[in-house]
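Lab notebook, bench 4. Still working through the backlog of constructs that have no structural model yet. Next entry is a single chain of 388 residues. Request: give me the structure tokens for it.
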Amino acid sequence: MSPIDDPQSKIWLSSPHMGGTERNFVTEAFDTNWVAPLGPNVDGLEKDLATFVGNDVHVAALSTGTAAIHLGLVMAGVQNGDEVLCQSFTFSASANPIAYQGATPVFVDSESETWNMSPEFLEQAIKERIVKGKKPKAIIPVHLYGMPANMEAIMEIADQYEIPVIEDAAEALGSHINGRMCGSFGKMAILSFNGNKIITTSGGGALVSTDQQLAAKARFLATQARDNAPHYQHSEIGFNYRMSNICAGIGRGQMEVLPERILQRRAVYEQYLQKMSAMPGVTFLAEPEGYYSNRWLTTILIDPAQSGGITREDLRLALEKENIESRPLWKPMHMQPVFEGGPFYGDGTCEKLFEQGLCLPSGSNLTQADLDRVFKVIDEVFVKTEVG
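Model written out:
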């Protein structure tokens, strides 16, 4: 049987990694019949997250990170016909909620230092949209692959033009800038606990804010905006976006091992760095001074002009042949069919990143044997080219 025919030998890009105590919280929920939405685990997870992120934040546990972005836009007053500035180099969940509100995403290119939203093009976009009579209603920067965006510059620009920031920290729980955690910079921020994230609740997310009233408003809207009355009464449009007590129980167990998971992901990155940094045409995303990445995914660029013609696709397909999952970097939103033709400000940086970039298996549960299998394929791709 070849490796690709054996599902047990699959090496995933980033799979869930249980810590051991998740079952205790879930069992307690069953034993006490707290299986419906909300309950002690939801309250406990919100407190655990607020403590971890710090900076006096308040947390609303939700069904997904996408739901958190949607509620953030609702609370920022984004309506039909408005415009929202959004990082182009990201997953579609950062941009789709803009369309939910009938607004138009205005996409902003990346900077080369962090691969995240360029402050230079952000300000250019704001100025030009204001001239056109369409001052943006919100800004959505993203901390991709665990690398913090240049939040100090972004927040300075946002404050200057009085535009609220909804910080997409879905991939960056535990990352920080000079000790300040991602998720604590914007007026609101979002987290994701999807199955592939650094910790998971199976599916889930959270809205984070230093404004206690905004977090409370998010909980209210996420519970179908039910007014405080003995009967079902609704004065606003609400959503069914709250996290279940069962999923939150998984999250509470995951929070206990989060620091360990961050160190494990960073150790995986270090092994790739040691293995590949001297290979021709291969570059890694380094941490700027004062930045700390959780290294959710280890990512590389392969420049075929320097690598002897090797492309990211050559490596991806070679890994796939051996039943090892890897993935190109995010295809920019302004290049996606659903958003094509929309406004974009940039110089093509994120397009180049997409063309040359690859995400490598990065899970905290990778064994040394798994990594050795990956390294064997990498060696074969690069040595074959050198020999040829």
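Notes after review: The chain has two domains: 3-13+259-387, 22-256. DSSP finds twelve helices and 15 strands in the chain. Flag for follow-up if needed.
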